[in-house]
Structures are given as C-alpha cells and as structure tokens.
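Model the whole thing, not chain by chain.
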Amino acid sequence: MKIQQGFSLARVWAHMGLALLLFVVTWIWTVQIDKTLGFSVIASGSILFGVLVFLALFNARKRLPFLPLAPSFIWFQLHTVGGFLALFLFWLHVSATGEKGLYGQILTVLFYITSFSGVVGLVIEKVYPRQLTCSGGEIIYERIPTEIAEIRDEVESLVLKSTDETGSSTLAEHYLETLRWYFQKPRFFISNIFGSYQSQHWVRQQCMILERFLNEKEREYLDKVYALAEKKRKIDFQYALQTLLKTWLLVHVPLAAAVMAMATWHLILILVFFI
Amino acid sequence: MAITTQVRPQRWDQPFGLFMTDLDVDRLLTFPEISAIEESKFPSHCPLRGILKNDARIVKYSAGDIVIREGDYGNSAFLVLDGSLKVVLFPGLPSEMLGRQTIRKKTFWQALKQLWSRSEIPEARDVKHLGLHALVRESEDLGAAHVFLQDIPAVLDKNKTASLSKGALFGELAALGRTPRTSTIFAESDIELLEIRWQGLREFRKYDQGWRRLIDQRYRANALNAHLRATSIFSHLDDKDLQEVADATLFETYGKFDWHLTYNKLQSQNKIHGIKDEPIIANQGDYSDGILLVRAGFARVSIDRGNGQQTLTYLGTGDFYGADELFRAWQGEPNVGMRVTITALGYAEMLRVPSKIVEKHLFAYWSSGREGFRQATSQSSLESRRLQDFIDRTLTDGALMEWAVEERFINGTQAMLINLDRCVRCDDCVSACASAHDGNPRFIRHGKTFENWMVANACMHCADPVCMIGCPTGAIHRSMSGGMVIINDDTCIGCETCANSCPYSNIRMVPIRENGGNFITDPQNQKPILKATKCDLCADQISGPACVFACPHDAMKRVDFRGTELDENTAGI
C-alpha cells in the first residue's frame, strides 16, 4: 500500500496546468464560433455555468459520504482544477460581454472574492498542516478551551503555592498584572497566523522582567510557570491556525452560494430575454 | 512525612469464580480427572486446592446454551462435570444462530435513504425492533449471560455433531494458544462444567504429567501438523516426515498472556521500558539450536546498536526465523551465531524445531537435488539479504517501525494512519463516520504521533484481538467474511469487558436512546443501557470506510504496518 508523504507544490501546478489546457481548448472553440458568426458568449457562459454547478456539487458530495461517488480527494482535486478553470472562463466570458450593469458588476465582484477565498483556502490548506505538525502540541480544536483552563488552573495554583511557601507576593502580583491576561484565552492570533515569534518573545520577556526580583525558590516556580506558558503558546498557535483552517470555508461557501444564485438568475434572464 | 503503604497484591486477590468455596473444591477432588492429579507435585506457593478455588469455577448451562462458539477467543478451558454437550462439526452453524451479526452491504438506494431516515438523536435505537436479547438469557451465575440455541432438535437434524460427556475436556488449545475456537459446542441437557482459566490450566500442564501429556498430545494431534504444513519450509514433507517433525517440536511460551490488561496503565505511568522488559526468546550471538516459529502473538527482532537495541522488524503468527543461520552452520561455516535478538512482545507462543530435525528433513532435502539446492540457496540468501537490508537501514529509516513496534500498533491490521502534513483538521472524516453510524463517530481523531504520522484512536482490527477475550455473549467477534472485528449490538450486554481489555482504548461504551431522545434504561436500577461501540470499517456501507472516503486530502489510510511502503521491507524475514 502506498502512503502519501507530505504535500508537494507540483500537484497544485499540475491542477493549474490542466485548468489552463482546458481553458485554451474552450477559448479556441469560442474563437471558432466567432469566426462562424455565432454567439461565443453563450458557449463560454454555458461552460462556465456548468463548471460552477460542478464546483457546487463538491459540497453536496461531502454530505453523502456513504454513497460510492468516488473518494473525496478525487473530488477535491477536480474542484481545484474546476476552480482555476472557472477563473479563466469567467475572464473570457466577462471580457466578451463587457459587463457594465450593476447586477453584472456585483456578480463579478462576488465571483472574484469567492475565487480569492478559494485560492487563500488552498494555500493555507497546503501550508498550515505542516506548520501545525512541526509546532507540536497536536490537539483537538474543541478541546482547546478546556486545555487552556487546565493550564490556567495549574499556573494559579503554582502562584498561590509560591506565595505560601516563600512568603513573597512578587510572582503573584506579576501574574495578576500581566501574565493573567495571557493565560485567560488564546492570544496572539494574528501573529500566529503569520508565523511570527511575537508570542514567544512576549512570554520570554515577561519572565525575564520578573526574574531579577525573585529569590532562588521563587525562580523555581517561575520556571514552572514559564514551562506552562510555553505549552500554552503552542496551544495558541494550534488555535490560530486551526481556526483559520476551519473558518475560511465559512467565507468561501456562502459566497459561492451567492454566486451560484446570482449566476442562475443571470442564466434565467438570458434564456427568457435573449434566446 | 507519612509513608503510604499497601499490602502487596497477590496472585489470587481476584479469583476467577466469586463463589467458589472449600466445599466445592472438596467436591471437585472427587472427580477422577482431578483426583488423578498428584497434589504433592505442586509447589507450596501454588497448591492444587488454591488453583481449583481461585483459577477455576463451577458453571451451569441450560439445555441449548452455547458454551463456546466457533471463531470466538477465550481464555479458559472446560471440564464436563455433569451432563452432555454437542460439538457442531463442519460446516458449523450459521452466524445468525450463533448470535452474530450478518453483514449485508446496503444497496445504493438504502445508502441514499440514510440521508433522511437517520435519527437526529445520536445512538438512537428502534425500541420496537429491540429483540435486544432475543438470543441471550441470563445465567445463574451473577452477571453472566449465555447465548442459546432456540431449536435444538432442528440443529441436531441439520448438522453433523459429536457428543461430549462427563469427564471430557475441551477448549484448552484455544485458551493456551490464544487462537480462535475451532467449533461451536452447546449444552444438550442441563450441564455443569468446571471452567479453568488459562493460568490454572498452565499450572496443571506444568506440574501434572497427566494433564501435560493430554494437552500436548491433543495439540500435536489437532493443530501442530496443520501449522507446520502451512509453513513454507516444511510444505514439501510427506505425512510421515511431517509427523516426525511435529513429534520433535518443542512448545515454548514467553511473556504474559494477559499483557493487555495492564499495558495501558503501565504505559501511562511510564513503567514500560520497551525491549528491556521483554522476555528473550533468542539472544544475538548465541548458537542457534533450531528454527523458531511463531504460533501466537508477536516477537520483536532487534540487533545491538550502540548501548541499546535497534528494532528491525517483528514476527507474527505463522512467521519463522533461524533457517539461514542453521543452514550456514550446517554447510560448515564456523562460529555461526544468531544475528539478531528475538523477544516476546507482550505474549508469544513459539514452536522450536530442533536443528537435528531441520538438518534431516529440510537441509537434506535442499541439497538432495538441483531444484532443492536452488531453493535452499535462494531461500537462505533471500533471508540473509532481507535481514541485511534491515540492518543497513539508518536509524531514521527504521524509526517508524521502531515506534510502531514499541506502541504495539503492529497488532493492527487496519490501523487508522493520518498524515498530519496533509490533514487540515477539517474533521470531515469524523462527520462521515457519524453519518454512517447512528450520528455518533466511532473513533477519535486523536492519538499517538510520530513525526508527521498519527495513529488515531480507531479500532485497528487486531491480528490478536484481545478485546474478544472474555466477552460473555460473544457479541464482539471477527467477521467470517471480511475478517474485521465487529460488535453485534443485539447481543452486547454492556459489560465493558472488551472496552477494558482493548490496550489501545479504541472501544467506547455509549448510552443508547430511543428515537425520542430519552435514554433507554434498565428497569431494575434505572441506569442507562450501555453498548460497546467501535469502528466496524463501515462493513455495511457500499463505499467502504466512510472516514477514508471522505478525506479530501488523501491524508488518511487504513494500514497494516507490515504492508505499507513506509517500510516495505517488513514482509517478514
């Protein structure tokens, strides 16, 4: 049995290449239609609509995992090819019709935003999994709040214990003033998304600031708090990337639905008033 | 500081039968099969009376009750004290009659119908349909239940059977050898049996010559020849020579039969130290005195590397090792020692075919003709080459196999392996699983990870399915058609034995509900009825495992670690 290793960019290029090839074939066909004084815009529009319907079917396929409709990864690959093809065809179709009306402009904007969200989704789906693996601390998304709460409880009990044992409240005060914010919920969302080291730097900085005010016994506690802060940092990273991986579809799918609805109405109008 | 103390746990803290008394033991000692055992041969720490009281129990079955079923795994043998039983001979009883689930693939329309017919409530059961325990009845023994046959005369009419009566012993080979039961046996009349768990049986075999002779003879007569015949290097032998090999073969067992019961706990406490804890079957550098065949369980093959041991591969049931070393020594090569160390992974039952017999029946054959010699050379060099390939591997190349062996994932034949570099954590696999299984996923997309690989908490359909040991109704069983381990929801009584036995925590107990959403409860104590649930590889779905089918990124595979190209050389040495 062959087990696929990590993703390679070659597959994305292959999908784009295939889409380009299909586009060129369509384009040549439309040119031929134009030469015979036909309406190439009808041909490109029909093919574009067909491709859009096919793209939408992927979502339907996801809801039918128990039907033998080919494995989902085949659908995904075809969806990617279809997505690029739709982008090229849309350009061909729109440049032929020269959209000027408000409806057409809204449809155009929606289509490009949808396509853009799709490309962004494709990129993050290719890049983020590897980053999540490398960061360590693999965790189920839904468990993140519980995990953070557990870390927070652990930190707070450490801080209290430190106060009890050492008779000094320096660590506790610093926790209340600064670190508590960090342990409350996932932080540094944006910087994690862009792979910045800001959270790592912040945690280290906060511990360094405090260190010179602590005696040896308190430092032992600080070390433990630091270790937990590092653990939380990894969870924050998982949270940020997994959130994006899960939510980009919440943008892409509704936009795609809107495009489909507008394109269908556009088609109906064409069929009623033009043909 | 106060020191916490605890009385050291003893072997018989948890006796097999809760209600065995000294009077029962006295009574057992009047039966000829037991009275013939010489009490004096047993050591003081393990007296015969102790074994009878703690490793055995008296059980009663009503007419029609199934005592053991073909294909089940069991850890005990039975001695008939009173009554008679019937053994159902080939081809055996149909699955439905045994309380097993018959898997029928859904048609396309039935599959599609799931879209609107499935309940919104997870783990909902149709109460009207609940012939829940139609095939199960409670036994006199507390907490036990038996599957029974409803029409014994019809069974006797339609099937060939053999009789077992007072004094007969059965079930000992499967109990000691950790192999599936080979036939179904049911009570013809109301019967009384002495059920002896494998630990007690092992002591009987160890300390009493009569029982040892009986068990060994029966093994040799029933199973050994078939095992040797199925081993490629002995396939050329005629019946007479094979019998000679069988007669000379030695039985050896290593490790703990019930390693799975403590594995999880010890591992979570970091008390498992890998290879250092494993019983050694053969040591690197030692003189090889025979070919080793694995009859049951698994063995690790490793070599010394630096200050530790590097795992090369593992041996499973039916595999063998040692022909190459013996052959080279037989050809006159000086100082040929074992090239590897072999240790038992949890539990391994081995057969050792002594070198003299191997020389006589294998090497003599190999060198007797051109064909034989060619076979010998190729067999020997192939073995040698494969082994060398393993040895030549870098530590990095072999790391995944090392990990899989360490975590015992090699037991799985359908382990759920996720490539985390591809997985976008979308949980489409989980949703698909829930869609195909009463709205509740049968696995958790979480598990142990190594590099970019994760083995998720999904049933691996183990080669050695320890979860099946001890199921009182045989609800958890291996499908005769697909080989997957499945649970019959109708006969599962929710006792949690399987869930507690699974060393990988891949079986979950769930409360079931009626279609309205209320929990179905036990009328006696008002507690929810629990059912064991686990991955069944979507046995009834036409699409196959929905999880794999639903993964948009091809990140998930169901794998047998031995067959993957991650480590294509692990096909056995």
